[in-house]
Amino acid sequence: MKLMRKLILICIGVMCMFSLHAQDKVQADSAYAAEKYEEAIPIYTALLKEGEHADIYYNLGNCYYKTDRLAAILNYERAALLDPGSSDVRFNLELARSKTIDKITPESEMFFVTWYKNIIDMMSMDGWARTGIVAFVLACVLILVFFLGNKVVWKKLGFFGALVMLAVVVMANVFAWTQHQELNARSGAVVMSSSVVVKSTPNESGTDLFVLHEGTRVEIIDDSMKEWKEIRLADGKVGWMPTEAMEVI
């Protein structure tokens, strides 16, 4: 009986939590729809403390963008990390980036590398996982068609179709794993200070290399120190930045 009571209390607690979350989401969306962006921002921020969601990051990014703040870029980047296949997120991210001071030209890369990255970013990790499951089920059906078909054409369809579906299963799992690794790594960051001097060494006495401004994306390549991070820009420049000047995506 005691165990049953505990389970009931847990279930009630979970239901209340989801109910409150839904109410807060509705309140934030209502404020956003009414163009009360300053009211929506703290509600969306509080919701994200309960768990990450691409749509909430996207809406929060829109609130910051509508109030002319480059903090929009950080939230669009986080939304894109969770849902890279969203064309709305990508479009708004590029729109926000166009307002930054630093115009960085990425290093050139082989076309097949770009092609491969674009394919991975067609869907989220969950999307690729679902694709893999569907492809596996179809492969099983096609295998049955191969064994049970009484005509050569059905056996050929079952055999080659199953091979294709199994290849999709493998690719979907590889792509989902790649995105999972990227989510766990969190090596990207966005400059949040109005301007910051990038140094040659992780201290203030280091040589000044270049200046970055708010909204610029960097990749963290050395995370071993608390107060300084070694970063790389898309154009290949490398240097050290104070940790407080950036926010990890």
Any overview of this molecule?
With 249 residues, the chain is an alpha+beta fold. Helix content is 60%, strand content 14%. The chain has three domains: 96 residues, Serine Threonine Protein Phosphatase 5, Tetratricopeptide repeat (Alpha Horseshoe); 75 residues; 61 residues, SH3 Domains (SH3 type barrels). The strands form two sheets. It has a five-stranded antiparallel beta sheet, with no helix packed on it. A two-stranded antiparallel ribbon has the order 2-3. A hairpin with a 5-residue loop joins strand 4 and strand 5. The longest helix is centred in the last third of the chain and has 34 residues. The radius of gyration is 24 Å and the shape is globular.
What's the arrangement of secondary structure elements?
Elements: H1 2-33, H2 37-50, H3 54-66, H4 71-82, H5 87-97, H6 111-120, H7 125-148, H8 152-185, E1 188-191, E2 195-199, E3 208-213, E4 217-222, E5 228-232, E6 238-242, E7 246-248
Antiparallel strand pairs: 1-4, 1-7, 2-3, 4-5, 5-6
Helix pairs in contact: 1-2, 2-3, 3-4, 4-5, 7-8
